[in-house]
């Protein structure tokens, strides 16, 4: 096998870059493709990463604004994580979870349980966020079957939600376009309104909006029947829905309604977990709730290895152990459940978070939010919102009507293209730009990021004016 060499400063990813582009067009199916380009598309080719930066195949260095996909929390090129990955693979690269186990998975479960709220004390590992949500929902079904309640299986989800790409998890999604051409388990999912304060009815106060959301939830439970609803699944902050931060007190009210009606509360922390809001988990430390289950992925390994999981309440497990069906089997598992390499990487990643990264994230988050907020001075920007080190710049054609540029649904991509030229990778979502940089970002780097984003939006405004799409 050929030796791997480090790239020198300014050096591109190598002579195979052009080949990679052509091979992708001929053989690679990208995620979320359009029918008109499926299987024939090449996207921006990234050659290397270092800290908060990535370098594309032209040698351009970019701030990694989305931290990969909400996940490179401790930054790129951390030798500590690479070394642990190597050491664990040389000691034990894999073991079957069906009838053996490994030490890193047990140690990690203990560490994760120590950070979880309430009585969440047991971990089931998956390969990512989608499979984590799928696992939580399958566990809910199993739990109710064992308890003699086979009809208690409906799932409550919300508009603007994103919970994954597997069949059942994707059925919960509530973002525009996610389900336009895709099937789902619509017979078991009940959708509620998005808790987005920016899109609340005109003239409605924030307190009234909170009451509306809580009343709608309570009324839905009464209408559908608590005896038919198995779980509510909700992100503490709707991430891919545009960093929707719910109004104060809303999540606590929903938690109480779930508890009163024996509905399992599943907190989807695939994005908010492992430092994005300055804590390992946001459910308890930020929002003051103790769910029945928490799903996680992404930041658990800072994206260095595919790993996810579900933390489950001790109460639920004890009820299963006390049931009249001790031979009932939870027929669910994955080939890479409890993968030793992934769990070893997660342990070291958790060390890094606990040693300094969480404290740093807490320290710079207010500055990050304040600097992003200055972009509301631009007439194209309707709102800047966020919490911790996640933020969203939502662009609108008219601040009064909050029209999200109906004539130009690709404004986010336009801004991203300008920012790419200027040295920043953005996560464009229709008319929104989502930012979730590595947690190690400094104040000076935040200034650079926001400065580039400001210029990218300004150039986009000029483009839209010239094209007659927007007057401003």
From TrEMBL:
CDD domains: OAT_like
Top-level division of the source organism's lineage: Bacteria
One protein family per Pfam: Aminotran_3
Regions annotated as coiled coil: none
Alphabetic keyword roster: Aminotransferase, Pyridoxal phosphate, Transferase
Cofactor(s) in the UniProt record: pyridoxal 5'-phosphate
Cited InterPro entries: Aminotrans_3 (IPR005814), Aminotrans_3_PPA_site (IPR049704), PyrdxlP-dep_Trfase (IPR015424), PyrdxlP-dep_Trfase_major (IPR015421), PyrdxlP-dep_Trfase_small (IPR015422)
NCBIfam families cross-referenced by the UniProt entry: PRK07036.1 (NF005447)
Family: Belongs to the class-III pyridoxal-phosphate-dependent aminotransferase family.
Full protein name: Aminotransferase
Annotated source species: Mesorhizobium salmacidum
